[in-house]
Amino acid sequence: MSLDWIYYAISWILLAWHGAWDAIGVPDAAVIGTNWAWILAIVFLVVTVRVILFPVFVKQIKSQRAMQALQPQVKALQEKHKGDRETLQKEMMELYRREKANPLMGCLPMFLQIPVFLGLFHVLRRLDPANGGKTLYGWTLGQFESASAAKLFTAPIAGKFGSTADELARLGANGTTVKVIAGILVLVMMGTTYLTSRQMILKTGWAEDPQQRMIQKLMLYGIPLSLLVSGAIFPIGVIIYWVTNNLFTLGQQQWVLRKFPPPQTATSKPGTSARNPVQPAKTGGLLGRGKSAPPAPAKPVAPKVAGPKPGAKPVNPKKGPAKRQG
After folding, report:
1. Which residues pair with 156 in a beta bridge?
2. Could you give the CA distance from residue 85 to residue 1 in angstroms, rounded to a whole number?
3. Please, what is the angle between helix 175-204 and helix 223-230, to 10°?
4. What is the widest separation between alpha-carbon atoms in the chain?
5. Do 220 and 194 form a contact (C-beta atoms < 8 A)?
6. Is the dihedral of CA 181, 184, 190, 191 positive or negative?
7. What whole-number distance in Å separates Cα of residue 313 and Cα of residue 310?
8. pLDDT grade, residue 263 (50/70/90)?
9. Strand, coil or helix: what is 208?
10. What are the residues facing 151 on neighbouring strands?
């Protein structure tokens, strides 16, 4: 299937935002070694896509809440059908169908952004002066030449950590500068990717379902580590898109998680949000380094009162000991 429609759409949004920033006076020429009109065009490509996908993101949160509310029933099914995976899977699928919960909804926003990422990757990879077809996807010759010369702190947005010497020569770039800028951005990309996953887990807790827990671990550790290798082939413009997207996600998740707090479960105390008893949610921000909640103060223990000795007369505490008669 041809992906030209994606390339045209991504190009149109990029060129529209570049034209908008140029119209309001953002210089097209480099300032501090950076062509801000093109950098802002990539940043606002993220904003455009995320605004379009915002309803899907809200559905993702609601689906995750529904899945979390079903965790006690999922755990009961796991105990009931321990050792019988086939029956367990059938029962769980029936539970999800009956309660209208979709385990795959949590990954839907990410999947919908993959075509955008691939489209931008393709468009920026074309910004090589040696490439033919410079007016493809709605670009003019002037726009192509302006974008191919666009830089972030003197590193071209079409350059990448793994650019060859010939590619760097065509882009008029210094290899060391490109590697330093790209390397820093890759590390920031890994860090913000980790934080977006950690933010969600800290707010909702670890899933009881082993498959869901495996997905959480993959999102938390696997994807950031994979970026250490794949980041070498990403153009700098694509990494800018990824980092901006992660920062947008951090802010959006914080807002949505406050608006749609975790549901209460049968094991939750009134007034407290539901947490996984095995992996309790932590406080103290994204890194989970804040102080844990202080323990409840111990109730004072009433002093023990010795009982009366056998044969002794009872003493009235109000009147005190009886006076001795003279």
Report:
1. 151
2. 37
3. 170
4. 126
5. yes
6. negative
7. 9
8. low
9. coil
10. 156
Closest by CA to 102, choosing from 77, 65, 52, is 65
pLDDT for the residue numbered 68? 74
> What does the pLDDT read at residue 311?
59
pLDDT at 106: 66
Q: Using 50, 70 and 90 to split pLDDT, how confident is the model at 291?
A: very low
Whole-number pLDDT of residue 82: 82
- CA neighbours closer than 13 Å in the CB half-sphere of residue 190: 16
Q: Are the C-beta atoms of 118 and 6 separated by less than 8 Å?
A: yes
Q: What's the chain's length in residues?
A: 326
pLDDT for 102: 74
Parallel, antiparallel, or unpaired: how do β-strands 155-156 and 151-152 relate? antiparallel
Contacts of 180 (CB under 8 A, 6+ apart): 155
| Distance (Å, whole) CA 124 – CA 2 | 18
For residue 150, the 8-state DSSP code is -
- Tokens coding 112: 């919908």
User: What are the tokens at 216?
Assistant: 């959480």
pLDDT band of residue 151 (cuts 50, 70, 90) is very high
Tell me how far apart the alpha carbons of residues 19 and 26 are, in angstroms, rounded to a whole number: 10
Buried b (16+ CB within 10 A) or exposed e, 226-240: ebeeebeebbbbbbb
pLDDT in tens, 160-171: 999 999 999 999
In whole angstroms, what is the distance from residue 146 CA to residue 197 CA?
Answer: 36
Residue 119 — very low, low, confident or very high, per pLDDT cuts 50/70/90? very high
Q: How far apart are CA 277 and CA 265, in angstroms?
A: 11
* Helix ranges (DSSP H) in the chain: 4-23, 36-69, 71-80, 85-99, 108-125, 141-148, 165-171, 175-204, 210-217, 223-230, 236-259
Check: CB of residue 182 under 8 Å from CB of residue 220.
Answer: no
